[in-house]
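[09:14] KT: can someone run the structure on this one? pasting the chain below
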Amino acid sequence: MKIIASDVSNGQMLILPDDLDRYRMTPADLKVSTAVMMSASLPFFFRPVIWKSKDRNESYILDGGLLSNFPIWIFDTDNPRFSFHFVKDEVKIDAVIPTPIHLCI
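[09:31] RB: done, structure tokens below
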């Protein structure tokens, strides 16, 4: 699992847990709930997460959508552990929904 957050103090995007070494931390030092809270801290709606690294530097962490709203590029690797691949480059489907009742069928 990769969680995206924005470190607004340093102006950098965070990919957790991959970027923990920048803060001299390991995945064991970060709770999943804290990472999710960082990623969901929308500006003006929720307070930023004030995160102290092991060297006592403080960073304000906000929603990852500030810097990357749809980070599908994370899974674009040669040997992915989990991903999906399209069989065709282009898929043409002509979906016809005659009535709203057909949505429930």
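[09:33] KT: thanks! The beta strands are 3-7, 12-16, 49-52, 58-63.
[09:34] RB: yep, looked fine to me
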